[in-house]
Design goal:
homodimer, 202 residues, mainly alpha, Arc Repressor Mutant, subunit A, 0% strand, elongated, transcription regulation (chains A, B), HTH_TetR (chains A, B), DNA-bd_HTH_TetR-type_CS (chains A, B)
């Protein structure tokens, strides 16, 4: 197959601009970052930037999409390392949530975006993450149906994924000075295990 | 005390403009409603409209705020009618969630806004509702501490309110053709009762 230098070059340019968007908002703050700053950081002229993006908002959206993809990859990689036979449902829930909290807190780009979450639309990212986790969880429970014989799994996973994601997002973005990560994780694990156990066929 | 006709008139005008915003978006759809349509519906000239609102987005925000207040009043009124001694925690949870779903579905303004939820910021409305429900629930559990001796109530309520609100909002806005209200309510009640019971001091 022949390579397509034009497409490859476009993609590299877009990647470089998204990298630069992340760096600039961390350095200057989301509200003070401009497309000029981003173009300068990327070493790209401003006309080229506007060839790929209509405005700053589109660049932030692309950055959110990339963060979502990165988080998913990290989570799936982390989950692949579990010894599922050795772990209880509670262990899996606690480990995954704690790992998610720590990964996101360690990412300065996410932390800067999270400062402005009330003005950003999170629904698209949430929908992408939900769809992937839903697939992951559905596969898991199909494989372990004998241990977890749950009939209405699709409803239980819908509630648990929406519920847990919203709480984690809220906790990371707005925070709550009186709630610690460890406490939140325990209650979320209670929620996940409780809802699943309640659905088991007797 | 002397009345303040100027202030009163302003408030009536703002109310009339918010009413008109609701009517126009239901009749024309959010994307096709203009401030001119709204001014015409309210019987107000466009300059007066711009005296109170900067643009259409501000009118939609004011409409969201009013919907939030209306929903809260309706919920609190509904809850006041409960015979709390005769109801289990599960009954209260199921009744409240089902009532919320039905109230919102019956409101054409909410349903039109919900079609566009991925572009509207819901965080402000959510925060207001959460704060009120948190107060309501905290008072309830303080009064019933003997029946429900839960130490880390603030964490459990934080998780449950965030989790339930997000799932209800998602279900109402995006819907899921395979999940029925009744099924969702059952699983949400499992979640609420399970998380509370797990927190009981033994």
């Amino acid at each position: 197959m022949r390579r397509k230098p034009q497409q490859l070059r476009s993609r590299e340019m877009v990647d470089r601009l998204i990298d630069a968007t992340g760096k600039v908002i961390v350095a200057r703050g989301l509200e003070y970052a401009t497309t000029n700053h981003i173009a300068e950081e990327a070493g790209v002229n401003i006309a080229s930037l506007y060839h790929y993006f209509g405005n700053k908002e589109e660049m932030i959206e692309a950055l959110q999409d990339r963060l979502t993809q990165d988080l998913l990859q990290t989570l799936v990689g982390h989950a692949a390392g579990y010894d599922l036979k050795a772990l209880s449902m509670r262990d899996i829930a606690e480990t995954s949530i704690l790992f998610t909290l720590q990964s996101l807190r360690a990412d300065p780009v996410f932390m800067e975006l999270s400062r402005h979450w009330s003005r950003l639309s999170l629904q698209r990212s949430m929908a992408v993450i939900e769809q992937h986790l839903l697939q992951l969880c559905t596969d898991y429970f199909r494989q372990h149906f004998r241990t977890y014989p749950i009939e209405d799994m699709h409803i239980r996973l819908y509630v648990l994924l929406n519920g847990a994601m919203a709480t984690v997002a809220r906790h990371l973005c707005e925070g709550s000075p009186v709630i610690r990560d460890r406490e939140l994780v325990t209650v979320l694990a209670d929620m996940i295990v409780g809802v699943l156990e309640k659905g088991m066929i007797e």
